[in-house]
Amino acid sequence: MCGIVGYAGSGDAPQILIEALKRLEYRGYDSAGIAVQENGGLTIHKKQGRISVMEETLPKLKAKVGIGHTRWATHGEPSDANAHPQVDSSGDIAVIHNGTLENYADLRSRMEAAGIEFNSGTDTEVLPHLIARHYDGNLLAAVRAALGEVTGAYAIVVLHAAHPGEIVAARNESPLVVGFGEGENFLASDAPAIVKYTQRVAYVHNGELVRITADSVEISDMAGETREPEIEELEWTVEDAEQGGYAHFMLKEIFEQPRALQESLLPTLAEAIVEGLDLNWRIGSISIVACGTSFHAGLVGKYVIEQLTAIPVNVCHASEFRYSPPVQNVGGMLSARPLVVLVSQSGETADTLAAARVARQQGSHTVAICNVGGSSLAREVDGILLTRAGPEIGVAATKTFMVQMQALYMLAVHLAYSRKSMDQPQLRRWEQELRRLPHYVSQVLERHTAISKLAGTLQSARSIFFIGRNLSYPVALEGALKLKEISYLHAEGYPAGELKHGPLALLSPETPVVAIMSPDHTHSKLVSNIEEVAARKAPLLLVAQEGDADAQRLSPHVITVPATDPVLLPFTAGVALQLLAYHVADALGCEIDKPRNLAKSVTVE
Question: Which residues form the Glutamine amidotransferase type-2 domain (predicted)?
Answer without folding.
Answer: 2-215
